Amino acid sequence: MEREPRRIREGYLVKKGSMFNTWKPMWVVLLEDGIEFYKKKIDNSPKGMIPLKGSSLTCPCQDFGKRMFVFKLATAKQEHFFQAAYLEERDAWVRDIKKAIQCIEGGQKFARKSTRRSIKLPETINLSALYLSMKDPEKGVKELKLEKDKKVFNHCFAGTSVIDWLVSSNSIRNRKEGLMLASSLLNEGYLHPAGDTSKAAAEGISDTPFLDLPDAYYYFPDSGFFCEGNSSDEDVVLKEEFRGIVVKQGCLLKQGHRRKNWKVRKFVLREDPAYLHYYDPAGGEDPLGAIHLRGCVVSAVEDMPDAKKHEADSNLFEIITANDVHYFLQAAASTERTEWIKAIQLVARTGK
């Protein structure tokens, strides 16, 4: 029986249509031998499949002036364009696609690093099954909101928590073996580093890629992890007051659907239900409207042809809902735009 290709990475990206200059959200799955894209995550059959054998990747792709973080995948027959939400997300997709193409050309199996050979991991250990056990909502590693260096790390956990879990689940005999096994999970992409401490170790600065430390943070690749900075004590109090209800709030410029004019609105991002409500910043308890985020795609854009320069000329981002409604918003700074994009992505994945 022929083995099914392994899923390397999956998630929503904005894809350009093959015939018209339209961009729509697609659920994209990177396999060892190709890329499948679906209209929705829950669909059983893909809308199309791009073979990786003989293909080439171009990044950055600047063929579309207003769209940022675009990469091009070209086959012998067609060119395909994808847009990620922000720089790190685009680079992660490009890195894995390049690796997959190299593995096909070299006749090798996809692996981010030759972990089993370098660490001498026993062949009997199934990292994929171990990863699924770690992600179990009740018995797995608990995802937390952790703070360090005036930053808040959402949906992550400490290195010590991983080793503690491996010990308690009888997966290892001691913490030294736990370091070896956790390093394997990290190198194979089942765990990702979060924060400078864990990232430095993963890049080879420490004796081991994985750190058994309470201030070394890690996260699951599909967990909805995002990091946000605390700009003041007032922000911290605000987040505590609305914990579990409001993820993020603040003022943004919003483009109207009919007249295309831009107005300042106060936005409140709620995690359950997954709505982005907007209000008159001058006051009023009732929202002027709401954007349903479940299944949406959000991405940065550089500029808009029909926008007046004095109204909106930088730090723009676009929300495409599951019903294919497009909303254009502007943040005050690029860092703020990235924070909004990551927060909206999280709510779109986990909210109802």
Question: Can you give a write-up of this model?
Answer:
Helix content is 25%, strand content 30%. Strands 4-3-2-1-7-6-5 form a seven-stranded antiparallel sheet, covered by helices on one side. The longest helix is centred in the first third of the chain and has 20 residues.
Please state the structural category: alpha+beta
What topology, given as strand order, has the largest sheet? 4-3-2-1-7-6-5
State the share of residues found in helices, binned by percent. 25-40%
Order of helices and strands: EEEEEEEHHHEEHHEHEEHEEEEEEEH
Radius of gyration based on Cα positions: 22 Å
Major pleated sheet: 7 strands, antiparallel
- Quantity of strands, as a count: 19
Q: Stretches where pLDDT falls below 50 for ≥5 residues?
A: 114-119, 230-244
DSSP helical segment count? 8
Write down the overall mean pLDDT.
80
Principal-axis shape equals: globular
**Head-to-tail CA distance between termini:** 39 Å
Content of β-strand = 25-35%
What are the SSEs and their pairings?
Blueprint lengths: L6 E10 L6 E9 L2 E5 L9 E4 L4 E3 L11 E5 L4 E5 L3 H20 L8 H5 L7 H8 L9 E5 L2 E8 H10 L6 H13 L4 E3 L1 H7 L14 E3 L6 E4 L3 H9 L4 E10 L6 E9 L4 E5 L9 E4 L4 E5 L14 E5 L5 E5 L3 H17 L2
Antiparallel strand pairs: 1-2, 1-7, 2-3, 3-4, 5-6, 6-7, 8-9, 9-11, 9-12, 10-11, 13-14, 13-19, 14-15, 15-16, 17-18, 18-19
Helix pairs in contact: 4-5
Features:
352 residues; alpha+beta; seven-stranded antiparallel β-sheet; 8 helices; 19 strands; globular
